[in-house]
Amino acid sequence: MTQAKTLQPDEARQKLKFYQKGTFTVGNRLVSEDERSVQASEDRSNALTSGHRACQGCGEALGARYAIDAAMRATDSDLIAVNATGCLEVFTTPYPETSWQLPWLHSLFGNAAAVATGVAAAMRVKKKKTRVIAQGGDGGTTDIGFQCLSGMFERNDDVLYICYDNEGYMNTGVQRSSATPPAARTATTPAVGPAPGNVFGTGKFLPKIAVAHNIPYVATATVADLHDLERKVLKAMSIHGARYIQINVPCPLGWGAASCDTIKLARLAVESGLYPIFEAEHGRVTSARKIRKQVPVRDYLKLQKRFAHLFRDGVDDPRVARLQAICDAHIAEYGLLGDEDEA
């Protein structure tokens, strides 16, 4: 009969992998309370509470809950939100109900930035320290609301504008916006003809335009990294002047993806290089989220029915290579491959 080996304390202790600290399942137990996620606290505001009517797996509902709760913590709950027309407005405020637990105003589709500017001016006249956030989808931000938003940037108004980027007009039937990726199928860019889906060479990446306005703070974020999202909102709320955060929020219904794949899709968008995550201050990029290992963009595309026409008969459409080239260009521009310490 063999005798069992007695493990010494150092041998019995499981070695901790440092990267686990970045996850919500493990990370909050490995740091002090003041460093934990806003959502990990029992004192979180639940600014967007239960009872809303978002689709299952909605990335926008998730992004908004974390972003606004972080802003509420930063301002000691002295916050007003202005919301453009769109999915977020519709599913959180079906008359006469609301899921918002803070002062909340519904603006028109295209003037959330202007309304928020007016609210901030009113608070200033009243000598109140109340902070203001404007929020909208990519349609109400990059298209219909672009003029008002550019004006807000140019005047350096004391407003944080958050864009929940789900890459289309999802609330009105999944039409193309200027944030819709090339080759994507929408109701207005159907998968028909010799070049099905959205055409290449159109649209805009608004964070770069925001950086060009030389405003105090610009950032991109993703629901695949909620710690980073909260950190950026907290940082933005510590700054005065015009600020802009754009969050990648997958839409299972509009993208034709499984509701359980929302976080996976958001992560693949980052790890392929298609959606660069960075920060900029006063017109200069100051940091970028590194990619451990770049994944092929086709891994991201194949999970979505809006790109199904690129993989007919088991053969990749040549435009997959063009999308890969866009990813590679982003990686080169922002220096996304390398050690995290270099970010």
pLDDT < 50 runs, ≥5 residues: none
pLDDT averaged over residues: 92
Could you tell me the CATH topology label.
Rossmann fold
What general outline do the C-alpha atoms trace? Answer: globular
Overall number of domains:
1
CATH superfamily membership: Thiamin diphosphate (ThDP)-binding fold, Pyr/PP domains
Q: What is the helix/strand order?
A: HHEHEHEHHEHEHEHHEEHH
Please tell me the CATH architecture by its name: 3-Layer(aba) Sandwich
What's the number of extended β-strand segments? 8
- The strand line-up of the biggest sheet is 2-1-3-4-6-5-7-8
What is the compact description of this entry?
With 343 residues, this protein is α/β, with parallel strands linked by helices. It has a single domain (39-342), classed as 3-Layer(aba) Sandwich (Rossmann fold), CATH 3.40.50.
Give the helices and strands, then pairings.
Layout: H1 9-12, H2 59-74, E1 79-83, H3 87-92, E2 104-106, H4 112-125, E3 131-137, H5 138-143, H6 146-155, E4 160-165, H7 206-212, E5 217-222, H8 226-237, E6 243-248, H9 252-255, H10 262-271, E7 278-281, E8 284-288, H11 297-301, H12 318-334
Parallel strand pairs: 1-2, 1-3, 3-4, 4-6, 5-6
Antiparallel strand pairs: 5-7, 7-8
Helix pairs in contact: 2-8, 4-6
Describe this structure in words.
The protein is an alpha/beta fold and 343 residues long. The chain has a single domain (39-342), classed as 3-Layer(aba) Sandwich (Rossmann fold). 32% of the residues lie in helices and 12% in strands. It has twelve helices and eight strands. The protein has helices spanning 9-12, 59-74, 87-92, 112-125, 138-143, 146-155, 206-212, 226-237, 252-255, 262-271, 297-301, 318-334; strands at 79-83, 104-106, 131-137, 160-165, 217-222, 243-248, 278-281, 284-288. Strands 2-1-3-4-6-5-7-8 form an eight-stranded mixed sheet, with helices on both faces. A hairpin with a 2-residue loop joins β7 and β8 (284-288). α2 (59-74) packs across α8 (226-237) and α4 (112-125) runs parallel beside α6. It is globular, with a radius of gyration of 21 Å.
